[in-house]
Write a structure and sequence with these properties.
seven-stranded mixed beta sheet, 13 strands, single chain, 265 residues, alpha/beta, Metallo-beta-lactamase, Chain A, four-stranded mixed beta sheet, 8 helices
Length: 265
């Protein structure tokens, strides 16, 4: 596995500063920006971007592509595990600029059009008071454009269980709960599962680390989210690549067991 920083100014994994890591799984590269992960999936000459961070993440993606010896013309698809604003960030800009399709589940279409209208169980504004460790995370997100994410329309739909005909040919693991159309993406030939926010190793709303589901501040149905962990475990993936936090290399089954033990927050 090789690692490369975008520039000398890109330093801290625990500060929300941008960090680019090559080959977190074979041909899958991770860009972390403002505590959100964007993944670049290489397949021959083509690239799929999985989740699209914030508006300010797009220039960093261009730099990450340059590190790979690629350009934006190599990007042929965008895939969204779900359409929350912190995963939708630059999707509208990139899709319009590059003319590439955006893929997701049909139940994400409403949120994709209206990124700030999404179901959640608990009051979002109480979490910074109850969990002060979340404050630097939320501030960094706001600075990256979390409050100004444009919506998108005209999405391409996948179905649960599909193998999507985009670079990497991911298998759709339907995992509702965080949102009602949430889908993880499994790359069997790379033994890697991109879990989106169905399972994370950093909870932005509490600042806690380790495998868990996201707090009710941003989760539509925590009970359903916990049930969906079984679908993730069924993949038996060795490498877990979450929407927030560091990769988990202890296998999805162990990660799911820890998330189930942690429960909702």
């Amino acid at each position: 596995m090789t690692h490369s920083l975008l520039s000398r100014s890109i330093t801290g994994r625990r500060t929300g500063q941008p960090v680019f890591t090559r080959n977190v799984a074979e041909g899958i590269h991770r860009l972390e920006h403002a505590y959100v992960n964007v993944y670049l999936v290489e397949d021959g000459a083509d690239i799929t971007i999985v989740d699209t961070g914030f508006p300010a993440t797009w220039p960093l993606v261009e730099r990450a592509l340059a590190v790979l010896g690629r350009t934006t013309s190599d990007v042929v698809a965008i895939a969204l595990t779900h359409a929350h604003f912190d995963h939708l960030g630059f999707a509208a800009h990139a899709s319009a600029d590059l003319g590439v399709p955006i893929w997701t589940h049909e139940r994400e279409e409403y949120i994709a059009r209206h990124p700030y209208r999404y179901d959640h169980e608990k009051n979002r504004f109480l979490y910074p008071l109850l969990h002060p460790r979340s404050l630097p995370i939320l501030v960094r997100m706001a600075g990256a454009g979390a409050l100004s994410v444009p919506g998108v329309t005209g999405l391409h739909r996948w179905q649960p269980g599909d193998t999507v005909d985009i670079p990497g040919r991911p298998h759709v693991v339907f995992s509702p709960g965080h949102t009602f159309g949430h889908s993880a993406l499994f790359f069997p030939d790379r033994d890697a599962l991109l879990t989106g926010d169905a399972l994370v190793t950093l909870n932005p709303y509490t600042g806690s680390r380790g495998p868990q589901i996201v707090s009710g501040a941003a989760t539509a149905d925590s009970a359903e989210a916990l049930r969906s962990l079984r679908a993730l475990a069924d993949t038996e993936a060795g490498t877990v690549l979450p929407g927030h936090g560091e990769p988990w290399r202890g296998g999805i089954e162990a990660a799911v067991a820890m998330a189930e033990d942690a429960g909702p927050s």
